[in-house]
Design a protein that fits this description.
Helix content is about 10%, strand content about 35%. It is mostly beta strands and about 180 residues long. The longest helix has 9 residues.
């Protein structure tokens, strides 16, 4: 009887236990023995594990591509406009925030970013907003998703860095959060 080697993907023990407790499956490489030999066909069928679903399974009914250009609005009422994307994936636009802790009146602020030009249209992207009404900068990263009915959504996470007067105040200078944007027609 051969011994099997199972390799869990770089998860700390606590994360692996939490995932198992939540009912998540961990991805394992189960088709090799410790000597590097391939497992027998009987062993391979018994585990029937794969690293990832085939391309056909992942994108069986998807022909819709997500397009970043245009107007987007998040759950707080902030709006942004992404202008045309160049052949390298670079873009610019304008961000109209609906929320601020600044003392000055809110004004539209420029954004600049880039995206991966993925074939499947579910691109990842990032952009920076240079707030014109405060001494702060925000960076957003996210992914554009297109649903089967053509609805598009941007799932984003952000960091906002405010200017502080001294190093001892550094601890309070960075905020983090997430927003979901939907297309505004």
């Amino acid at each position: 009887m051969s011994r099997r080697l199972l390799s869990v993907l770089a998860l700390p023990a606590g994360a692996a236990l939490a995932a198992a407790a939540a009912g998540s499956q961990l991805l394992c490489q189960a088709a090799e023995t410790p000597r590097g030999d391939k497992a027998s066909s009987k062993e391979g069928k018994a585990t029937n594990t794969k690293w990832w679903p085939s391309r056909e399974q992942k994108h069986a009914a998807r022909n819709i591509k997500c397009d970043l250009t245009g107007w987007w609005e998040n759950e707080l009422g902030s709006r942004m406009h992404v202008a045309d994307i160049d052949s390298q994936g670079n873009f610019s636009g304008e961000y109209h925030t609906a929320v601020s802790s600044a003392q000055k009146p809110i004004t539209p602020s420029p954004l600049i970013g880039s995206q991966h030009l993925d074939e499947d249209g579910q691109c990842t992207f990032g952009f920076t907003v240079n707030w014109k009404f405060s001494d702060s900068t925000a960076v957003f990263v996210g992914q554009c998703f297109a649903g089967d009915k053509g609805d598009e959504v941007l799932q984003t996470a952000w960091l906002l860095r405010e200017k502080v007067d001294s190093l001892p105040s550094n601890w309070k200078a960075t905020r983090t959060g997430h927003n979901v944007f939907t297309r505004v027609d």
